[in-house]
Amino acid sequence: MTIETHSFTFSMRFKAVMTIQSTLKTAVYRVRTIWGLGIWLFLLGTFGIGTLGGARIANAQEQAESLVKAAPPANGEAKKIRYWTSQWNFDEIDVKKLNHRLDRIGLGVPIDLNGNVTVRFEVSVPLNALTDAKKYRIDGLVSANRLRFEKLLLSDFQATVELDEGVMRIDRFSGNLIDASVPSQSSGGASGSSRPGSVVGDAAIELSPLKDLQINLDVESIPVQPLYDLLIVFSQDKKSEPLSGIASGKIQFAGPVENVGEIASWNATANLQVNRLSRAGSLPLNIRTGVVSISGGVLAAERLEVESPQAAGLSAVASARVEMVGDQAFRIAARSNDLPLGVVADLVGFSANSTIEGELDLDLRADGKLARSQWASSGRLASPNLRIAGVDLGLIEHAFTLDETHIEIHPISQGEAGLPMDAPENGVILKRVLAEYNVANDRFELSNLVADLFQGQVTGSATILKGAVVDDPAETNQINLAWKDVSPIFHSDALFPFDVLLSLRTSGQVDWKVPAGQWRFPAKQIGEATIEIDSIKLGEESIGNLTALVSSDGSSMELGGQGMLFGGKVSVRTVAPADTKMSWQDLFGKPTAIDFSAASIELNRLVTFVPDRYLPSLRYRELRGRLSLDGTVETPSEVSAKLRLDRLGLGPVVLSRQIDAVVRLSDRVMRIDRLTGNFADGRIDVVGRWDLQAGAGPLGEGNLDVRFEAVDASQSMLWVSETIASYVEGTMSGNLSVSGGEPLRVRGSVQASDTMVTNIAVRDVHSGILAAYSVQSGRWDFELPSLVGATAGGRLKGAARFHSTSRASGFDLQSQWSFDRVDFGQLIAQASGSRSSTNHGQIRGSLVLAGEGIKGLNDLKGSFETELDGSQASAIPGLSEAQRFLGVVPLAGIRIDDGRMNGTIAGGRASIQELVLSSSPLKVIADGSVQLANQRMEIAAVISTGNFESNQLADAYLQAIALDYVSPISLLIRINQLLSNRTIYVDVVGTLSDPSLRLKPLSTLRDEAVRYLLGEVFGLNCSGILFSDSDDMPSVKP
């Protein structure tokens, strides 16, 4: 009895498990195309197998034994189902292990699963109807805190499950979906980047018998990326790029389980809002699907709207009706205004960069039968500024038709556009495109191509093999293309860092044959291509013409070309032998000499097209000379060349008769092995290395060592500033180190033995040099941080810094100078244009000189302080002329014991605020100004001679103060009368080298000057004198 009972129990359990497994396995196989529901069914339907890990809490065997002992029903009674009910509880089931075991019986899913699931089921097994799957009952709850499917994280998931009368219902399932690849806020991620989305819904599936499946979902802020990645895993598409976005909306699905793989049986609707949908980082899109339905095998989308949160002008509206079965008839309509084509290129995976520019209006209609490869489309295109690869396509107002064998594009006629029939078609470049083509399983054939565009015509045909014959040696790919007088206009910024219109007229022909499967091997290809380019223009300037020939005879490739560019001859030629196993990559990488040459390229024509921002000054527009070169391309990355530059000049000045250079280019690193020649009547030598791809600046980066000897200082400074060049003369030598990128920097030293600065001789000069130049902004900076030299018999030290200015011309300056024992007689003579002087005197002092936008002496500002010592009185400009007003006192023999002068510089004048000269027989005070440009003076001076320490001066002073009242000027005049009129007041005019004096009455002196004269010159203490406001001399007391 025990053996029978146990045998019966085992048999019953085995049949129950196998019945449930068989039923669910059949159902799962039919709904596997709906992968999301399938995962849940796998989890829910297989928990009853009882072979998995977890805690099973029930003693079903004892209940079964007690139920088996019950007596069977009497004959004729309705069969009453007796159930064996047990609690199937599973805690923290490892879904990864579950999926692995399900995979062994064909029920696994090919994705990475992680997490634990808890199940609370009440399972009722029909003891007297074990083979009737419809009688099995399940009621319970499935929950999970965290489940991960690839990068999709499902949290806080729960669902109630009920199986009754063969229908499994999943009610009130809900959960949060998170992109597991995005860091959470707690782990330092961006705020809101891992905010969970939610999904709620219900589902029902009729399992016994297999009938219908129904699903209702509400999703809110669901991340698209992990869902898309999950689909990629199922589709095993290794090349797909990331797709990101956030989706919200409703999805409803209904269909028979038996035919769930047949779209014709589906009845589904969806209404979704997908925000910031982006493919591989492209422009994000917001998409509103509207109501999309599938019914009776027909997919219908009444209004699908597309816009972008980052491109206000991007919007499109589309509708579609597609029969998913039978002939697959379809009808599609789309309309877009101001559609950015660069955005479209990015969305379809084409990296447009700046090769596709412009906006397009599109109105499209298409219909056909896909199953029969029958389709046709038509519509209109409009764009005022479409540009592809730098080529303007002109005004686009075109109609097009396209079907499975034919394409036609033509301008909308005046009548179609609502314009008068005689209205001009200004700006239309694309006149007409006609072609026939055939897309077969084994080839693509293009024939009868006629394109009237860019004032010329293109014709041709082509056969491109594919499919089964792609490697058939009996088949041949063939391209035949010809064009005549095609005249496109390019924007050169597609090739260069500046935008100049490049126009040309070209004709040519290509005839090329490639055996099937031999595209990679040039030796197996036979053909010839000729290209003629004439009327090449940059802007409005004609720059030349070119002719090129490329041919292959099966054993070698030949390239030849010649023409005229920028006034010089250019040519290129190479013959590259190729064997049958050599690929194009091998051919280009093989050391094959490509000889090229250019003769007498005119620099003035080249510099015309360089934007102002890349020139240090607009004077560089006057750059001239002729460049010639001969070189060899060893490989695409190895080039060597010899260059010669003849009669290099800037404006009317020829800076070099000839410069020769030997350069090598290897992997975009240029090495200057030798650059030598005459420059600015001296010699220059340069060696160095320059990396053209470093990316540190517009010109790359590197180091150059420059040595120059006996170069003309004025001509050399023309490269820096024309204004500076006008102030310097002489020769100089030095060494410089030039380094880049951005900005370019110069460091070095310079020496000059005999130079002139503003006509003043400066000898034995040496200084360090620091300079910088920004290629992007055109700004420069030039510094002499430690200049030492000799001038006018004395020593000169200083530092100066010159800057480019934001104004059209000129420069900015900051400088400080000191000088010692300088012979100002020589200095005045040199400034006046004379090389010698008979008068001598020494000064020492300091000078601060600065200015902004300096174009001449009027723009200088500064200050000066000097001391005069050991000088002859006759060396002072104007003192010799004063002799005739001072009587018998000889000035020629007087030596100045002490003197000082200070003042400011501004407006082209040196303003003397204080000039005091002092010796025992001579006193001078003065103020005024000197014009810097012509040394003309306007100075007022008081000159006194005599013995200022004698008793006679004291007697005169006592007699003067004996008056009742006295004014300052009256006191001075009285003293001067008592001293025999040896104090004079004069205006010094004329030039420094040729001064003249005009005598003025002392009575015109200002009180402040008189007080200063009495105190500082005569040394009289006037503090006790009561001065009157009147200049009249009062009577003397008795």
What does this structure look like?
- The protein is mainly beta and 1038 residues long.
- Among the domains are: 1-71 and 79-237 and 253-261, no CATH class; 594-791, no CATH class; 874-1017, no CATH class.
- 14% of the residues lie in helices and 52% in strands.
- The protein is built from 14 helices and 53 strands.
- It has a 48-stranded antiparallel beta sheet that branches.
- α1 packs antiparallel against α2.
- The chain is elongated and about 160 Å long.
- It starts with a helix and ends in a 21-residue tail after the last helix.
- Residues 1-21, 23-71, 185-193, 417-424, 963-967 and 1024-1038 have low confidence and may be disordered.
Key attributes of the depicted protein:
1038 residues, mainly beta, three-stranded antiparallel sheet, single chain, disordered N terminus
